[in-house]
Amino acid sequence: MNKLIVFLLALTLGGNLMAHASVMSTMSHTLQPGLDKARLQLADIEPLIQHYRQVPGITVTELGRSVENRPIYMLTLGRGEKRVLAWSQMHGDEHTATAALFDLLHYSTAPAQAAWQQEWQAAITLHIIPMLNPDGAAQNSRVNAQGIDINRDALALQSPEGQILMAAAKQIQPHYAFNLHDQNRFHAAGDAPNPATISLLAPAFNDARDVNASRQAAMQLIAYVKPWLDQQIPQHVARYNDTWSPRSFGDNFAAMGFSTVLVEAGGHRADDHRQVARRLNGQLYIKWLDAIASGAYQQASLADYEALPFNRSGGMKDLILENVQVTQATTQAQIDIAVHFHTEGDRVARIQEIGDLSVHSGYHQFDVSGLAFRAGRAYPLDAALTLDTAAHLALLTAGYTHFSGEPSRLTSTSRLPVLVNPLRPPQQAPQLRQGATFLLVNQQGEVVQALLNGQLIDLATGQIRNPLGT
Ligand SMILES: [Zn+2]
């Protein structure tokens, strides 16, 4: 769907988007243009790398090459004694921090920030490796071109990308290491009914999860920013799983004595491209540079770290319909239905969970009490059919959710999702993994809402209640 239309539809929904506007407007740093995208690849950042080659005070090094011979770059700024290493996108499909690192460079090198830049660069030497896994980025995959998860290769070191990161770290011997990732959008922030937009962790360096001086410093860096994060995104901040992960870089770097901070950028409502997490990441980097330069983080209380709730895995769903009346044979029930949007491959929305979902929260959530599930019928494409939105709404009202037959007979200008010969057609009652397409009828038996490939449509107005991208 056209982004402008998505935006306008989002505006009509009101509430959610307004909540974000306040987050955005409090941000003081400007973003690097061109990086608000569904994915970032090497071609997206290479012009920026070439630009920074020309900027005085920045050294660009090619550390080596990926399996498919793509360059892996490092940018170095500052001349201070405190050494900081930050790397992003070791998982190729996790690019939020890559954009935020370029936001930091964009901000730090702006003329207006000359004084600030002087200040932190006197105390810190900062090494940035943006996009450690350019092959994975090219495929939008987590793993590298060998199929190796680089973040499980810190011991074996069989991937060139893992070798490059380990060699850089051994050479730099950073005091502080920032391991920058994206997490899946289904983690909730503890018991809060919200996604964990930012999750932080000072990873363990042993199975006992002991705390030594360097891990304590990492915990304090996190504690230092927690009050600010709580202010920016209340109840959207969490702690990542702290189980010791012996094959991972963060855990190994912690064991090597580097104060290591894991940052996981997560989902946010009405924010498909994770721009909220991106802005917050950039702001966090600025705060951490200040706190490391001044040592201010050493005053932070570990209680603030411990107060971070853990990620609640699977706590968030893409869509929850509450209180759907379902009749199956003689069994009548009132149940919740969760829908999952498969963002890879076929992009089909499927029924993910059925029953009491009151412990979960949805990016979109609608109480449909008083409405009953009804399977839609197939409208046969026996002859040529021209479908506009009004005709589509009329067919839905008459009980047809999808079309069967020769697809070329259908000419559609409908702005609603059009389903032709769906692979998993509706069943008489909701079933797990079935396509999320069905009707909701009122007590008079009239069809009043329709779910089409996970999008809920109010038939009286034609409004999509959960437009994609919102
Ligand atoms: Zn990751």
UniProtKB/TrEMBL annotation:
Occurrences of domain Peptidase M14 (ranges): 36-263
SUPFAM superfamilies reported for this sequence: Zn-dependent exopeptidases (SSF53187)
Domain of life of the native organism: Bacteria
Organism: Alishewanella tabrizica
Similarity comment: family membership: Belongs to the peptidase M14 family.
InterPro entries named in the record: Peptidase_M14
Signal peptide coordinates: 1-21
Entry keywords, A to Z: Signal
UniProt protein name: Peptidase M14 domain-containing protein
